[in-house]
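Hey, weird one. I pasted the YigZ family protein sequence into the form twice and got a warning about non-standard characters only the second time. First submission, copied straight from the form history:
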Amino acid sequence: MTEKDTYKTIAKSIEPTLFKEKNSKFFGYAFPVTNEDEVKNHLVDVKKEHHSARHWCYAYQLGTETITYRANDDGEPSNSAGMPIYGQIQSFDVTNVLIIVVRYFGGVKLGVGGLINSYRTSAQISLEAAKIIKKTINKDFLITFDYKNMNTVMRIIKDKKLNIAHQKLELDCQITITVRKKDSSSIFEIFNNLYEIKIKSL
């Protein structure tokens, strides 16, 4: 079995979607996120935009190999909002994504079943509106070497079509390369076997 080295996420934030159920309005948002600070910032922005709403429920998932997630009901009955939203994140098999569903109460109680269905549907519509893309899981390596070995290093980078994330080319040179996970061991070995060139995983 080959090790999984790709994941799915959304390309960019979407325009808010609207789902209505018995006079309640559910505005759905989807954001690509890479850390919890970004999650907090988006929540602050959405709450400002919908400051008169009753509930701002959300779920997010971060990570590719080590997964962290959170589902928040924000005052709705337990597991009636956050988990149905998170269920759609799992259903669409996406990560590094935040879904926020803002609810304006319309005067008619929906009941727990109605809430679960409404939050799930709103999250689903939001993810259907998003462009889902596939990305590779990458590893970063730092290569350090003397300037005189520049040609050797650059030739390998060019031959192997490696992506340079950062470089400092002086007397002592440093290049950070980003390598697809499945190729990382072989690339590490190539550089590790070279005289006067050091490589380490970041």
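That's the output from the first submission. The warning seems to come from a hidden character in my clipboard, not from the data itself. The radius of gyration is 23 Å.
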